[in-house]
Amino acid sequence: MRKSIERIAGDSEGVSYEFPVFRFEGSDKSAPSAYLQAALHAGELPGVVAVDALMPMLAKAEAEGRVNGDITIVPQANPIGRAQYHFGEHQGRFHLGTRNNFNRGFPLLAAPDTKLLPDTAPGTADQRLKTCLLKLSIGHDIVLDLHCDDEGLAYLYVHTCLWPDMADCAAAMGVDAVVLWDEDTDGTFEGASIMPYQNVPADVARFDRRVATTVEYRGILDVDGALAASDAEGLYRLLVARGVIADPALPAPGPFTGTVVPLENIDMMPAPRAGAVLYDVKPGDRVAKGARLATIVHAPGEADGRTEVFAPQAGLILTRRSRRIIRAGEDLLKLVGDNKSADARSGTLED
Fold first, then answer.
1. Where is the Succinylglutamate desuccinylase/Aspartoacylase catalytic domain (predicted)?
2. In terms of CB atoms within 10 Å, which of 3, 34, 96, 127 comes out highest?
């Protein structure tokens, strides 16, 4: 294993940021290569501890000569967001200087060539970080961006061009659901990882061996040793299933039995009133059309001070908010509907 340090210049004199990159060199140049990063939204830590639990497994495979393809690991991909605190509260989703989401605004290249990346030297620190992460990741056959939701099940976002070929990956990782998408107008890291292969020859695109996904490891509070170990085992199984690591003792993943839906089937359920949220459902619950999902207490103690929210269709509760205070118009949860949502959104679901 080799460790290097990437440095990102800050936006004022005397300020810079750095993060480590770990590389395992494969013995077979024809084998698939893999890139894993965690905490692009710097406060999302389930992926960080999963990578921490994975590293000894990779070191053991390396020591035993079982690493076929090159592996690049970035355990904490966002030192800028990691350093951001406002009145004692960590702020890792948006860059405070530009107000841009750290997982938006990645360049969507026409081909998988880092020479096409824009010059961000005169730009802002968050733009330089995004360019750096793309330089590290482009060219790998497998690209995993490890995130988490607020409270939720484990699920993947997968571009339609990679499904069902990626079903083995979903099964290996043991996730509960897969959300399929086909349009990225916001420049997510996942979009920037798959879009360069959309208009290139098939022998370059290699969709049969390509993996690009945003992994949502449950909720932001699910930072737990047992979960980290389980997630690391899932990542390891994926790398073995795709030939990056050799491990004949590990069986091939079975069929994926979780929920698979297009992104337009998701109802986000914006709150009709501001107030305190009383949930009737939790992630993993199956609900019928018309079932009460939550009650918002907007005028405590008053006879008409509660507003109920009901399911517009039958489906699965994928996520909900971890905080119980809400403003009008903010999303209460993700309901994975059996049918297309009447309020279907294209592109990303949230800011």
1. 31-193
2. 34
